[in-house]
């Protein structure tokens, strides 16, 4: 019997370690210079934002991290990516992050857009990052990834993710960011031009 296998859908996340970042210095920059994000409210109640803080832009290790994240994501995806947003997240004991995505409705091809989590500090008993994926609204799977200091997680922005509870007395400090292609795909996703209603028939 001869047969062909055609892949209908593949969804991966990637991990890599950024060994050139001084996490002790980066943690100090975040603790000393990052501030609260004012007046953030999601139009849908999918995220509380209580754990988010502004990124300490312009400081040595923070600037270096932004460059290394962009370089690592571009290298792994094999296309030039641009970072468009970045912030920090701090969890204290017994805190967690609700399920949410980083998808933006203006993204014509959502599969081309990625988000990252970089773990500045991930002590023992730290909260895992959990990805929830569904297939054809039938199969649902939750995949937990254990973070480690210096680990960068790279995943599609549309994937729902959350954490379980953080059980350490030491803070869990993460840098999150969103990236998109420098040259985004602008091809129409569907062509309905042959079906347009003529002007004389429009009411």
Salient structural properties:
203 residues; alpha+beta; Jelly Rolls; six-stranded antiparallel β-sheet; three-stranded antiparallel β-sheet; 2 helices; globular
Provide structural commentary.
- It is a single chain.
- The protein has about 200 residues and is α+β, with helices and mostly antiparallel strands.
- It has one domain (about 15-180): q2cbj1_9rhob like domain (Jelly Rolls), CATH 2.60.120.620.
- It is about 15% helix and about 30% strand.
- It contains two helices and nine strands.
- The chain has helices at about 25-35, 60-75; strands at about 15, 50-55, 80-90, 115-120, 130-135, 140-145, 150-155, 160-165, 170-180.
- A six-stranded antiparallel β-sheet has the order 1-7-4-9-3-2. Strands 6-5-8 form a three-stranded antiparallel β-sheet, with no helix packed on it.
- The radius of gyration is 20 Å and the shape is globular.
- The termini are far apart.
Mean pLDDT: 92
Strand order of the largest sheet: 1-7-4-9-3-2
Under the CATH scheme, the architecture is Sandwich
Helix-strand pattern, N to C? EHEHEEEEEEE
Q: Report helical residue fraction.
A: 10-25%
Taking pLDDT < 50 over at least 5 consecutive residues as the criterion, the unreliable ranges are none
Number of individual domains? 1
Number of strands: 9
| Percentage of β-strand residues | 25-35%
The CATH C-level name is: Mainly Beta
Termini separation comes to 58 Å
Overall, the morphology is globular
* Radius of gyration, in angstroms, nearest whole number: 20 Å
How many strands, which pairing sense, and closed or not: the largest β-sheet? 6 strands, antiparallel
Number of helices: 2
According to CATH, the homologous superfamily is q2cbj1_9rhob like domain
CATH topology: Jelly Rolls
- Which structural class fits the helix and strand makeup? alpha+beta
